[in-house]
Q: What sequence folds into this?
């Protein structure tokens, strides 16, 4: 890896919620610790779990960067029991009782967030609004099937409508779900962190976990950087995707990038609401409070598999075009960012004890596009597992669950990952770093010696191994984020090879002979 004066290369987007704001301040871990529960990840899942456990357990939260700086801070703030996967599909896979459990769990998560905000007096712009599934003209039968499936899954108050909550009330079949909600996720987790500290929980930011080992059947060791060691009776990995190996669970997850734009919209043009369309790739939108005269329109979508596209500019343009067709009063685009979504095989996330770890290690992953509610219900479930040993939702979200459809889907995802590993030994691109132009990036060389090379516009060169430190796939350049992304399991690295997000624990291997140019 080539650096100069200790500076790191550019890369990584910052969401609207985090831009120019200061996160709650917590010191880094400086010495060995012993605790009941060590939680890795200071986002919504980890902090909610710490909030639930702090009154009865010694709790230590480790966050690599700042509180809420991961995908919690990139969330668009939707709170809903309307899931990404069609309820008809979920009923087929999990039965009506299983689908109804998913509805109840996500609904309970919204209620829990509302109760915490009221109890702790958190300023987070929480608001109850309706959610709308918006179909295209001619999709009446499709929307009616979705309505029937939603009611079979327990959403009794789903209502068929003939126009969307857009300007001009765009005609088309819609399904309205009363009493969903929205909030500012970054402000919520900052307040939640302060509440955890007030309950006696210990939070350490700037504390990246580099290794996790089981020392015995009674404890887990967590190494932070190259220094402190944490010994815990139980470990919860709340990092969006589980850290390290675990090929079994990673074969059942599919990482996607999703894009977001925002702009101001005059008040009164449309009601505040959540909305999702039926397109592929799909779009999602909400209106957030902003000022006395304007709301903030937040539009997301245009998803693709991580590492399989590098056309962020085109996707932002598509989002803007979609938004302006439906909201002609939208002002200039003020913010753009992207985030990561992990889609689980089977359509429901995985929450519980990691198979083969004697019960000390637990995780929550596969939040899909419902990260705020799935992260919250995950914390509720995990807290119950740690305190009582079970929960009514456990079977539905069990990481070890087996369904035929899910097994087939996991096999397909595993095959895709194997194909990506095979790419490690094929398809040369460039043969020398000298061929990489200023402002460009490329994978150079072939086989296991391939390099990930980025040259800044000013000429400074950054080089590291192009082989992902997680499971050996070849990373690919993400022009929009200025990052190296792994198409197998979603690990991401900055232009110099530092881990931005897991499952990778280690940076890309630096070039031993690298000298600043």
A:
């Amino acid at each position: 890896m080539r650096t100069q004066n200790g500076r790191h290369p550019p890369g990584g987007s910052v969401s609207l919620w985090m831009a120019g704001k200061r996160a709650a301040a917590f010191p880094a871990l400086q010495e060995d610790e012993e605790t009941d529960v060590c939680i890795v990840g200071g986002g919504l899942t980890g902090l909610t779990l710490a909030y639930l456990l702090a009154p009865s357990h010694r709790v230590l939260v480790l966050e690599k960067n700042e509180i809420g700086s991961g995908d919690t801070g990139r969330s668009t703030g939707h709170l809903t029991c309307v899931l990404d996967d069609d309820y008809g599909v979920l009923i087929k896979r999990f039965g009506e009782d299983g689908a109804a459990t998913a509805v109840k769990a996500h609904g309970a998560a919204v209620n829990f967030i509302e109760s915490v905000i009221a109890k702790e007096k958190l300023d987070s712009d929480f608001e109850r609004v309706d959610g709308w599934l918006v179909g295209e003209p001619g999709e009446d039968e499709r929307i009616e099937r979705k309505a029937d499936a939603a009611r079979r899954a327990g959403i009794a108050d789903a209502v068929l409508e003939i126009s969307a909550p857009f300007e001009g009330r765009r005609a088309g079949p819609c399904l309205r779900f009363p009493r969903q909600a929205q909030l500012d996720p970054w402000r919520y987790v900052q307040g939640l962190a302060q509440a955890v500290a007030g309950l006696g929980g210990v939070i350490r930011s700037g504390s990246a976990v580099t290794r996790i080992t089981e020392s015995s059947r009674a404890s887990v060791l967590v190494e932070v950087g190259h220094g402190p060691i944490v010994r815990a009776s139980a470990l919860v990995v709340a990092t969006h995707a589980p850290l390290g190996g675990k090929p079994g669970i990673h074969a059942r997850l599919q990482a996607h990038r999703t894009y977001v734009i925002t702009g101001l919209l005059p008040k009164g043009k449309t009601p505040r609401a959540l909305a999702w369309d039926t397109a592929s790739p799909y779009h999602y939108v909400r209106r957030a409070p902003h000022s006395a005269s304007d709301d903030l329109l937040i539009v997301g979508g245009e998803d693709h598999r991580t590492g399989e596209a590098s056309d962020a500019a085109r996707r932002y343009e598509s989002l803007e075009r979609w938004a302006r067709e439906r909201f002609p009063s939208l002002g200039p685009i003020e913010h753009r960012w992207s985030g990561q979504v992990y889609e689980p095989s089977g359509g429901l996330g995985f929450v519980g004890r990691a198979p083969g770890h004697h019960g000390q290690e637990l995780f929550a992953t596969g939040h899909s596009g419902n990260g705020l509610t799935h992260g919250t219900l995950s914390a509720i479930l995990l807290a119950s597992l740690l305190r009582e040993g079970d929960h009514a939702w456990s079977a539905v979200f069990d990481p070890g669950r087996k369904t035929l459809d899910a097994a087939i889907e996991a096999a397909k995802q595993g095959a895709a990952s194997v194909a990506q590993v095979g790419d490690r030994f094929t398809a040369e691109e460039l043969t020398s770093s000298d061929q990489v132009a200023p402002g460009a990036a490329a994978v150079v060389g072939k086989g296991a010696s391939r390099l990930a090379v980025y040259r800044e516009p000013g000429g400074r060169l950054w080089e590291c191994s192009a082989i992902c430190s997680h499971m050996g796939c070849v990373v690919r350049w993400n022009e929009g984020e200025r990052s190296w992304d792994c198409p197998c399991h979603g690990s991401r690295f900055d232009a110099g090879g530092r881990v931005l997000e897991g499952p990778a624990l280690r940076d890309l291997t630096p070039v031993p002979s690298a000298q600043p140019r």
